[in-house]
Amino acid sequence: MQTGETTQKAVCEIEVEIRNADGLHMRPAMQFVDIASQYQASISVSNTQTSVDGKSIMQMSMLAATYGTRLKIKAEGVDARAAVEALQELVEVKKFGEPTPEEKSRQVQ
Amino acid sequence: MRFADFVCFEAIIPELQAKDRDGVIAELVSALDKAGRLGRGNCEKVTRAVIKRENEASTGMGKGIAVPHVKYKAMKDVVAAVGQNSKGVDFAALDKQPVYSVILLISPVDDPDKHLQAMEKIFKHLQQEKFRRFLRQSQTAAQIEDLLKEADVNPSL
A2-99: what fold? Predict the structure, then answer.
C-alpha cells in the first residue's frame, strides 16, 4: 500500500482480487458503493481496460469483474487510507459475504 | 459480448401495458416465455424469482432505467427482454424517479462470468445519455432492435 503524505490530498492505492465465485455483480457492487460513499475521498476503480467512479453503481456494474479479476482501487482525499482499507476488507476478507467457488460448488452438491 | 448475443429480439415490447413494477416484470418474462427462451413451465417461477430479487434491492439505477434480473437454475444461457413504458413506472429507483426503459436479464446459476459480461454491455450503453434518449424515443420493436444492433458496432453509442 502506498500513501502520499500530504494530509490535505492523501492518495492511497491498492490492488485487490475478487474472491467470491459470482464476481462483482450488482449486489456486491452496491455494497462497494455504499462503503465508498461513506468517505470524503474520491475513489476510482480500474481494471486493465477502464477506470470508473467507485461511488457510482452504474459505473461499477461496467467493470464485469469476474472471480480472480484484479482491480486497482485508488482513493484521493483526507480519509483515503481508511477508505481503501475498508474496501479491501469488503472485497478480499468479507468477500461481499458470498461463497468462494469451492464453497459454492459444495452448496450445489 | 454483443446485445445480439443475449437479447431476445422477439421479446422487445415498445409500449408495456403494465402500469406497475411487478406487472412490467411479468410482461417481460412472459415475452421471453412466448419466444421459447425459458424452458417449459418456468414462466411463473421465473417471474416470482425476479420479483423476489427486486424486493431485496431495487435495480432501478436512476436516470429512468431499471435492470431487473435473476439467476435461475433451469436456464442454459443468458437471455434478456427489453421494454419501454412512456408514462413511467415506479421501480423504487435509487433516484426516486419513474422508470421508462427496462432491460430484464435471466441468467444461469453456473455461469456467473457470462452474467457479468452481459451486465457490462448493458451498463456501458445505459451509461450514455445518447443511448438512453434513443431508447426512449423508439416507438417500435424494430427501432429498438436497430438501436441495439447499432450499439453492437458503435461502442460510443
Answer: Histidine-containing Protein; Chain: A; (3.30.1340)
